[in-house]
Give the backbone structure.
Amino acid sequence: MGTNFIELENTYTSGVYGKRPVAIVRGQGATLWDAEGRSYIDCMAGHGVANIGHGRSEIAAALAAQAQRLITCPEVVYNDVRARLLERLAQITPAGLEHFFLCNSGTEAVEGAFKFARLATGRTGIVATLRGFHGRSMGALSATWEKHYREPFAPLVPDVSHIRYNDLSAAEAAITDNTAAVIIELVQAEGGVHVAQEAYVQGLAALCRERGALLIIDEIQTGFGRTGTLFACEQYGVEPDILCLAKSLAGGVPMGAVCLGGRVMESGRVTRGAHGSTFGGNPLACAAALATLDVLEREELAARAAELGEHARERLRSIQSPLIREVRGRGLLIGIELSKRVQPYLEALCERGVLALPAGPNVLRLLPPLVISQEQLDQAIDTITEVLTGSAHAVRTPEIVSSENREVDLLQRMLTISSLSRQEGALARYLVEQAQQMGLHAYVDEVGNFVASTHAELDGQQPVVLLGHMDTVPGNIPVRIENGLLFGRGAVDAKGPLAAFICAAARVASSGTPDRPIVVVGAVEEEAATSRGARGVVNRYQPSACIIGEPSSSQAVTIGYKGRLLVDGCVSHQSSHSAGPLQSSNEVATAFWERVRSHADEWNQEHAGASIFAALLPSLRRINSEHDGLEERTSFTIGYRLPPNFDIAALREQLQRWAYTDDIHLIFSGEEAAFQTNRAIPLARAFMAAIRATGGQPTFKNKTGTSDMNVVGPVWGQNIVAYGPGDSRLDHTPNEHIRVDEYTHAIDVLERVLHETASQREIAL
């Protein structure tokens, strides 16, 4: 799905943007989701727009209510919502700023500031700073320093000069009797996250007043709580003559403001017709801005930015990496200056689920929503640490009591290394080290998968692939062995099966190089709908056989998994009295779910018989409702488990028809078709023989969940099963553990299976 959106945009977009290969379709707080259902920690906030976070019901409600009343209203007439916003801005902006020109963006705010400055002073000169960024329209671009922005559009607006930042003597030389204004950012965000010195800013303000120039402070990115106070200039004790605001002013709706001080208004030159904007101050944006300011004040987000920013900078400064030159910033506007180009590290973060920004060629910029939780922020910093140092932050392998069995020790130590989805790097590197010590050839591939092989090169041979995964769900379980049980998060899903794969492959390698290569893959992201690790190898190999690492017990083999479809729905209505005839959004959503369930019951009666595996199984995973007095909104998630050979496209079409009738918006994600093989395939026969030879009684299972078998099975063919020690009922639980004797039995079984399947005999299906 996401690929289609990317191709569509690439076909019709202007081509002026460098885009990351991610199609973002949904957001909530500081989390974003792409079209494939993968989540990301947002450290971009839409280039500083989403200070109050994504998916705010307050903004949605304000927009919906205002859109039904009045969307557009030019400033040739008065408007109630605009009037309230102007009053609110006068109350919250620094002293002396009591008049406002409303526009649509930061660039427009800077353009307006320059016009007002020239108008009020009768002068033309504008002094800006090196590394400053103020926008891309012709006037704002003239004040922007970076050459690659400017040079293609020369000649620009004349009488604009640039001086060194934080250099008061340079300002003294540059400000003349022709200078209309000096424009500065208190934190140069795009220019490398450089922070202005207090003495410099105060001296610059005094110098401007002394020489008749105006001081324009550009707080387009630093405003509205970003730096730890509502406006950064509060931290400097200065009153700007003109203040430029935009980005987060309206919670994501395009809006800017030029705040005008006494020296501008008292000039008497700001008269009717001096400036204007068709969309500036429209009621829709004004309503969103009022709601945004309410959230900022109610949730004390400026203070939150100060606290979290200090925490983040302290953690970032503790990272031991030769790549890092300096960490700087204010509040939740943070720059990490590197000794190398930043772009590869931004791409690596994106791959691991963190979206961050550059600030020049070698500065990594963090600009998260101010509502980000400390847990999310720490997770993002852990990932940054991993990317910049090659080892995950705070990954400590605690002292454990040796079991005097290297194979058990391997799993036990794996359990001490946290490996949440998109944070598997530390575990992957540990496994490379261990696999090499065990006689295997091992490395971490470009996706982040751990790969180990009995052969240095495949030389075109069809390998036997053992595909496990490394990621686990959150939740710490102390690692320990008690009464023959090994406890720890991931013991069952999925480190137990993966450790058994590595040990069995190493045993085979130690007895002599097998005819066919045996390749063990510890894939990333099995828990995510994307299964990025499995998709990264599906076209790399053409295996003769494949074993998927999933818990089934050491005596059971899984030969089928159901498919999956996730359906996110949303219905919103104007509020109505509960005694009225109209259905509420909750009733509409509930009726839709009942229709889904009834449809599944009817389908199962006709097609499934008594088989759960053959049944269509929907579940209502989530339903939430919100109500603000004007609008009610209900969102829900339905998860389908799909039987083999099910027509998924027809199901989507049916759901869309029902949704259209009920005015419900649906988003589909996580789609996987069911996959099923059979017990007559060579691999299944090899498992039956091996389990019996080691004293067990083999059984076969079809599971109602999904696994990486759904991803690789359609490409790699039928000679594929899933196998691994552990009771799947224990995975993801607070009591997750594996029996040590079952784990070692599984290694014995796998060793026999690999000896059989890695022989060079033709495998006929």
In short: The mean pLDDT is 91. The longest strand covers residues 563-574. The two ends are 33 Å apart (CA to CA). The longest helix spans residues 585-607.
